[in-house]
Amino acid sequence: MAGKTDKTAVPSPITSKTAQRASFHDFTSDMVLHSPLWEFWYAADGALKVVSNACETCCGYEAEHFYRNPRFMEAIIVEEHLSLWNGVWCKLHNGEHYACAEFQIRLPDSKKRWMKFEANRAVDSQGCHCGIRAFCHDVTAHHNVVQQLTHFTWHDSLTKLPNRSKCLERIEQAIERATKCSRWNFSILYMDIDRFKNINDSLGHTAGDAILCKLADRLQAVTYGIDTVFRIGGDEFVLLCEDTTGHESVHRFIDTLIHSIKRPILWNNKQIHMSASFGIMHADPEVNTAERYLQNAHIALNHGRSNGTDGVAVYDSHIFSKALKLISMELDLHSALINEEFFLEYQPVVNTHNRSITGFEALVRWKNRQGAIISPGKFIPLAEETGLILELGEWVLREACATLAAWRNENPLFKNLKVNVNLSARQLSDLELTDTVSRILKETELPPQCLRLEVTETMLMENPDYADITLRRLRSLGVELCIDDFGTGYSSLMYLQQFPISTLKIDRSFVKDMEKNPANYEIVKAVIALAHALGLTVVAEGVEEEEQRIMLLEAGCDYSQGYLFSRPIAPVELPVVVHTMQHPEQQAWQTG
Ligand code: C2E
Ligand code: MG
Ligand code: MG
């Protein structure tokens, strides 16, 4: 058997040439046996001549196995990699000087290891092919690292779901399939968890992560492995539904998803209720990039959730042009601040009993470059979303405080009046809010008790602990606080009582048809009674009819605001209005 030479038979340097050659051959064979590497020597005809003893360390089989069965290597290579092995031999037989392949072999204990096989064609001094010398290295560790890196490249580390890159790849494949086969249908569902930020803010990021994992599991369970779920960002998931049986089936599938998401999640003995919104982009031959599919599904998602939570919308050209309009409005909004296109109007707040003015609410308006007046309902949410609200909110605050301070200096009728300024959710969660308010009061020299800040219940409920701290800081400046639009959120008055507020504004939706809808009137009466019991002053919003004022008066409502008394007016009109409203008995005018 080749290679079984005596270790002591080291050739003498002074033997004859033939003997020298023979001994040298023995010597080299002997040396290769003890190579620390797994080495093979093959004769020119491919017969295995030598295999190093290191093979046992590398693959667990003694060299004997290879001598006894020249095709032993093929027997231990995993079946699906046999072609790689054969490929190497093909190349060598075709005269290539070097060939290599990486494949898995099965060890005696059935475990698999990755090997790299490298072979060189050897030629003698005459240039004739005289054999093949090859090495086999264990490259399992390297493969594992590569595999892990590949996993990280394609998967999200938190939920272990495939990530955005994988998602784009899979959409590309779906597009390709649909191009080849017109019957191949697919849809992209872009899902975003509603108000997920609240979870992170109120329960912490650990809870947020755990809830995301739970939801990822649920999504996977619902898809039964047929469709693919990807996590492509914080609380954003994409589902790729392939080979669908029509749009109806996609909607039914979304119903199942919604049902699964809405099942309460238990976290620290608390039941957490989640919901999600969806944007759908069905296969469209006009759209040919994965990025575009995702983008359109995202546009549909934003459209679907424009009314808050639980939105579902399918992308179409109408949605697209609306999104374009929003984008251009967002750009305009940025320049509007620089170009001073915003201005304030003031709406009086009056005593329900005698209509005398007690203050006014500052309401922002935007006059764009085309001269159109845009109402805050249209641009405040956008400013909020883009973060521009912080700058705009500060401007409103300064402008309102400066206006009242100026009138107070000029006109004694303004001495006891207050100005109400609306705050947005972003402002309330801004760490600098109290400092900003304090600075503006100092700059404008407006006494703090002349300023009343309005916040909504929803803003307080988003992060109650933080809101409480901020409101207490603001209160310590001497500023008054007021709950706006009461009744539109889902909080109870008893709960709101914990915040340092002094005034409650009943939303105009309750006041609106009080006279026709007895249930609304009952609610208004109950809210007023409870608010008074809790020591709060009540303002009714949106009072348009004298009949409403009488009813509110009978219910004990302290103050009112609405078109019945005055529409929001320009600051230059304030002195006349204030004058008239301080002496309501002389009130000659009535707006409406
Ligand atoms: P809000 O704070 O509840 O303001 C009252 C809204 O009701 C104003 O609408 C006002 O014009 C309207 N209104 C007053 N009386 C009546 C009435 O009798 N009938 C009817 N139908 N409406 C009446 P506006 O000015 O369009 O403002 C809408 C909302 O935009 C405000 O609701 C407030 O939430 C927000 N907003 C306005 N200005 C600002 C601001 O400077 N900052 C922030 N963050 N939000 C603002
Ligand atoms: Mg308000
Ligand atoms: Mg309001």
Ordered list of secondary-structure elements with their pairings:
Blueprint: H1 17-33, E1 38-43, E2 48-51, H2 54-59, H3 63-68, H4 72-76, H5 82-93, E3 98-106, E4 112-123, E5 129-138, H6 140-154, H7 164-180, E6 186-193, H8 196-203, H9 205-223, E7 228-233, E8 236-242, H10 247-262, E9 265-267, E10 270-272, E11 276-282, H11 290-304, E12 312-314, H12 317-338, E13 342-351, E14 357-367, E15 373-374, H13 376-386, H14 389-410, E16 418-422, H15 425-428, H16 433-444, E17 451-456, H17 457-462, H18 464-476, E18 480-486, H19 493-496, E19 503-506, H20 508-512, H21 518-533, E20 537-540, H22 546-554, E21 559-560, H23 574-582
Parallel strand pairs: 11-12, 14-16, 16-17, 17-18, 18-19, 19-20, 20-21
Antiparallel strand pairs: 1-2, 1-5, 3-4, 4-5, 6-8, 6-11, 7-8, 9-10, 13-14, 13-21, 14-15
Bound molecules: ligand C2E and magnesium ion (2 copies).
Structure description:
This protein folds into three domains: 2-145, Beta-Lactamase, CATH 3.30.450; 156-315, Alpha-Beta Plaits (2-Layer Sandwich), CATH 3.30.70; 328-581, TIM Barrel. 45% of the residues lie in helices and 22% in strands. It is elongated and about 120 Å long. The longest helix has 22 residues, at 317-338. Helix 9 (205-223) crosses helix 10 (247-262), helix 12 packs across helix 13 (376-386) and helix 14 runs parallel beside helix 16 (433-444). With 592 residues, the protein is of the alpha/beta class. One magnesium ion binds at residues 484-485, 505, 541.
CATH classification, class level of the largest domain: Alpha Beta
Largest sheet: 8 strands, mixed, barrel
User: What is the rounded distance between the termini?
Assistant: 113 Å
Enumerate the spans where pLDDT stays under 50 for 5 or more consecutive residues: 1-22, 588-592
Q: Write out the CATH superfamily name of the largest domain.
A: EAL domain
Number of domains: 3
Bound molecules: ligand C2E, magnesium ion
Q: Looking at the structure, what is the overall shape?
A: elongated
What's the CATH architecture name of the largest domain? Answer: Alpha-Beta Barrel
Give the overall average pLDDT: 88
* Structural class by SSE content: alpha/beta
| Strand element count | 21
Helical content, roughly? 40-55%
Question: C-alpha Rg, in Å?
Answer: 39 Å
**Strand ordering within the main sheet:** 13-14-16-17-18-19-20-21
Strand content: 15-25%
Tally of separate helices = 23
Kindly report the CATH topology of the largest domain. TIM Barrel
Oligomer: single chain
